[in-house]
Design goal:
alpha/beta, Rossmann fold, 4 domains, 8-stranded mixed beta sheet, 7-stranded mixed beta sheet, 33 helices, about 10% strand
């Protein structure tokens, strides 16, 4: 046995480091180590040994594989082989630091480890050592180690840099190293003419727009033209391996070129948008806005879906979702769409996922990728059970500039894509002016995704030929860079020059390609101009075939009421457990009580939700519910996923009920709001017949996803005709838990509500929640609108919020709930409220004493139930004042939204008052004592005291009935 056989992994590397020092200076190591090395040297076989034992890998702890070393060498020779082995390993791991990936010619940063001298070897040393002294990939070749080093430098330090050291799986590292060194995905010269034709189309499109529409902006692709052929390559190869749908996310840089050449959007359609913009600038275009709230969006934010057959034996849909100017926030929307496209939901049980059914491709900006936190949140989703999509191909469209900001001021990392390394994602840095390397990187990315079902990142390094937009002057801030850009030929010109010099194409044919492309664009322009003279078509078409025309404002589908016996049957099915399944004793008692509570009229919130889900599944509507700790419920109320206390196995009752006709999925989300909510929005848009729900752990967590709310959820219908029936469950209510765990910012949703874009509810009973969910599910087929529900915390188990089985079976959802005491004819004060404060009011002793006061609840705040409220008011002919009561501060909650609407509904001479917290910068008190005192004051003022604020009575109003 060789002495080094005793050492493995990091130990072997450490021993070899000591041995290096020993060879240079035996006195540099301790006595015991020196004695061991002396003995080791004496045991080395002579040089004529035919069969030398193999040593362990050099520095085997390194992520990249190192060659193996034979014994049978003298100490000096062994030292040179060790040095060569280290150099080979460093080239493989860090050769990207010497790769020439900048088309503008910047020198790579390099690394001292890539120099021979660092490893105590010279070219002569390597030239004297045959490849037979090592083994492993590449070393079956004849020649010397110098030949090996030169070949590896060509592979790892050329126009493409492989950055794989962060990959922890040995099998993946071996695969990646093999595809690089075998060059199995190298691009031959046979496709060069077709590539030149494609680049001609890409370049001609941009040049035509510059000439035809000076002054307009569209964020051209120039400097990153190879992005389009790379997408061609990825989509074609993915389709050949069984991908049936592609979803692409991209910000504005190059978006129109991708829409034209990847999604096949006709030139005349795109040119028509430019003509429309020009008309609007001259004041000759009709307003886009209509009475249904349609606004449209700028051309470089729009989405499209087309079925493409290029390079595929079957037509596959390619979807480019709309993307606002928040750049990377569409990433998780794309992932949600891709996941929805991969799942089959028409059978009971969990959805069936095929990770290869769809492919997500996300094109990032080099400044936005490290700069926007949603990128990290989305990357973190990639391997989570409830969110994985079988691997996403990421491409950084790297123009080495963020508007006017240099990389040194934009990120704290060497590369724009270094963030991906934290998620073990392989990265390739490639020069955008090297077409063959660009296409090879696309092939490697698609093959890796196909092989391992994991993400891959291509850092496509190019430049931006013009400013941030076409009217920007970049030389103001980057004069030296743009002096280079002004002299730099395009990638199409570089390729054409090479092909001409090699005799593969004639110069006249290069010019003819360009002429043909320009003529196609001029023809499209003529057609677009002719179309512009005709009456404008309705451009409010949906971005995909799954969206539907808008129904009349306020329309909502009715749920199918279930009989009480049907609910009892569902309840029994939900309580069934598999044989030998051992449930936690406390939980078994709690769930078992549901059998009795359904008869006693005490169906609490979670129980009603569970019955609603079962009823929705029985109707054939799939359900997907996600959120932080949603499986159990933040307040230990839900328990949709049960755990065997002995085996740890999971059981989800809703996936096993006999009545179900669709799938049920529930997942705990990561601690993310932005990406998690965006994912569900994308899922709901792509699977419009699925009830998709996202729950915040506390309602204020919606703060972390406000961009998704503003730019997608509430405005997607108006900007893009993108429909979604997504449900947001936001725990809301003042229980003394401080400013951050009280408010779900109800006021924001009400401020954003217009044109029937969303539905906002703040409900008070479990039956109302049951009906609201079922109504939402029923509306998916005809009128999908996002639903925002202020769900309770303290009311989850409060008897005042519990309902009877008859309330679930016999009465549909009601936007207004009258006083539980019934009609109080002599009432002079009408307290109107919404949500949890209702329970505070009616549980107060003052409520029972105040026989001249009635409390009415507004359960659905938007659309505002004006007709229902008028009907309630007509039953109280003696009302003198209406008092809106809320827990929130006066500048928050529903007051600002409702004051005008209540004022317009008031009977003549009736005073409108406000009771609640005064205006505050913070939503609630941090002290429980202050909270209790303020809650008591609010209840007293609402029932028997003076309002905090009053609005002058209407002299012309609704007369008493």
């Amino acid at each position: 046995m060789n002495e080094l056989d005793r050492f493995h992994g990091p130990n072997a590397g450490y021993v070899l480091e000591l041995y290096d020092r020993y060879l240079l200076d035996p006195e540099s190591v301790d006595d015991a180590t020196r004695a061991a090395f002396d003995d080791w040297a004496r045991q080395l076989p002579s040089e004529d040994t035919q069969q030398a034992p193999m040593l362990h890998p050099i520095q085997a702890e390194s992520p990249m594989e190192a060659p193996l070393l034979p014994a049978g060498l003298s100490p000096v020779e062994l030292d040179k082989v060790v040095g060569a082995a280290r150099l080979i390993r460093i080239i493989r791991e860090y050769g990207h630091l010497a790769a020439h990936v900048d088309p503008l010619g910047a020198e790579p940063p390099g690394d001292v480890g890539l120099q021979m001298e660092t490893h105590n070897v010279q070219e002569a040393d390597l030239a004297a050592l045959p490849t037979s002294v090592v083994s492993g990939p590449l070393f079956g070749m004849d020649g010397t180690l110098l030949d090996v080093v030169h070949l590896l430098r060509e592979m790892y330090c050329g126009a493409i840099g492989y950055d794989f050291a962060q990959v922890q799986d040995a099998g993946e590292r071996e695969w990646l190293q093999d595809v690089v060194e075998s060059r199995r995905f190298a691009v031959g010269g046979s496709a060069a003419r077709e590539l030149l034709e494609r680049l001609t189309e890409v370049e001609s499109f941009e040049r035509f727009l510059h000439k035809a529409f000076p002054g307009q902006k569209w964020f051209s692709i120039e400097g990153l033209d190879m992005l389009v052929p790379m997408l061609d390559e990825i989509i074609q190869r993915a389709s050949a391996t069984g991908t049936r749908e592609v979803v692409i996310g991209i910000a504005h840089r190059g978006r129109l070129n991708v829409m034209a050449h990847i999604l096949g959007q006709p030139y005349e359609t795109i040119i028509g948008q430019f003509l429309h913009t020009a008309k609007r600038a001259r004041g000759t275009a009709a307003s886009d806005s209509t009475n249904d709230g349609w606004t449209g969006d700028v051309k470089y934010h729009l989405g499209a879906t087309r079925r493409m057959t290029k390079g595929s034996t079957q037509a596959i849909p390619i979807t480019l979702p709309p993307n606002p100017s928040h750049l990377e926030f569409v990433n998780a929307v794309v992932e949600g769409r891709a996941r929805a496209a991969q799942e089959t939901r028409d059978q009971p049980g969990p959805p069936r996922q095929d990770g290869r059914a769809s492919l997500a491709i996300i094109i990032h900006g080099d400044a936005a990728f490290p700069g926007q936190g949603v990128v990290a949140e989305t990357l973190n989703l990639s391997r989570l059970h409830g969110y994985r999509t079988g691997g996403t191909i990421h491409i950084i469209a790297n123009n080495q500039l963020g508007f006017t900001t240099d990389p040194i001021d934009a990120r704290s990392t060497l590369y724009a894509g270094d963030l991906a390394k934290g998620f073990e994602i392989p990265v390739v840095h490639v020069n955008a002016d090297s077409p063959a390397d660009c296409l090879m990187s696309a092939r490697v990315a698609e093959a890796y995704r196909e092989e391992f079902q994991k993400d891959f990142l291509i850092d496509l390094i190019g430049y931006r030929r013009h400013g941030h937009n076409e009217s920007d002057e970049p030389a103001f801030t980057q004069p030296r860079m743009y002096e280079k850009v002004s002299r730099h030929p395009t990638v199409r010109d570089l390729l054409a020059e090479r092909l001409v010099s090699q005799g593969e194409i004639e110069p006249d044919e290069v010019r003819l390609m360009s002429d043909r492309a320009q003529e196609r664009l001029r023809t499209a322009q003529r057609r677009a101009m002719e179309a512009a003279e005709r009456p404008a078509p309705d451009e409010r078409e949906p971005d995909d075939g799954k969206a539907r025309p808008s129904p009349p404002a306020g329309a909502v589908a009715d749920e199918r009421l279930l009989l009480a016996d049907e609910l009892r049957t569902l309840n029994e099915q939900l309580l069934g457990l598999p044989e030998s399944f051992t449930l936690n004793t406390k939980l078994q008692r709690a769930l078992g009580r549901r059998r009795d509570l359904i008869e006693s009229g005490s169906i609490d919130w979670a129980h009603a939700e569970s019955l609603a889900f079962a009823a929705i599944l029985a109707d054939g509507t799939p359900i997907r519910l996600t959120g932080q700790d949603t499986e159990r419920g933040t307040f230990s109320q839900r328990h949709l996923v049960l755990h065997d206390v002995k085996s740890g196995e999971r059981f989800i009752p809703h996936q096993s009920i006999a009545a179900a006709r669709a799938s049920f999925a529930v997942y705990n989300s990561p601690l993310s709001e932005n990406a998690a909510l965006a994912f569900e929005y994308g899922y709901s848009a792509h699977a419009p017949s699925t009830l998709v729900l996202w729950e915040a752990q506390f309602g204020d967590f919606i703060n972390g996803a406000q961009v998704i709310v503003d730019q997608f959820i509430v405005s997607g219908q108006a900007k893009w005709r993108q429909r979604s029936g997504l449900v947001l469950l936001l725990p809301h209510g003042y229980e003394g838990q401080g400013p951050e765990h009280s408010s779900a910012r109800l006021e924001r949703f009400l401020q954003l509500a217009a044109n029937d874009n969303i539905r906002v509810a703040n409900i008070t009973t479990s039956a109302q929640y049951y009906h609201l969910l079922r109504r939402q599910a029923a509306s998916l087929a005809s009128d999908p609108r996002p639903l925002v529900v202020m769900t309770p915390k303290s009311l989850l188990r409060n008897p005042k919020a519990a309902s009877s089985i008859e309330e679930l079976a016999d009465v549909p959802f009601q936007s207004i709930l009258a006083d539980d005491r019934g009609k109080v004819i002599e009432a002079t004060r009408l307290v109107v409220c919404s949500g949890k404060v209702y329970v505070d009011l009616v549980m107060s002793p003052q409520y029972e004493a105040a026989q001249d006061v009635v409390v009415v609840r507004v359960e659905e705040l938007y659309p505002f139930p004006e007709r229902e409220l008028r009907e309630v008011l007509e039953t109280y002919p003696h009302i003198e004042e209406i008092v809106w009561t809320q827990e929130e501060p006066q500048n928050m909650g529903a007051w600002a939204y409702l004051s005008q609407r209540l004022g317009a509904t008031l009977p003549q001479d009736v005073v409108l008052g406000y009771v609640g917290r005064p205006e505050l910068a913070s939503p609630a008190e941090g002290s429980i004592d202050l909270h209790n005192a303020e809650q008591s004051r609010i209840v007293e003022a609402a029932l028997i005291g003076k309002p905090d604020h009053t609005v002058a009575p209407r002299r012309e109003g609704v007369k008493h009935g």
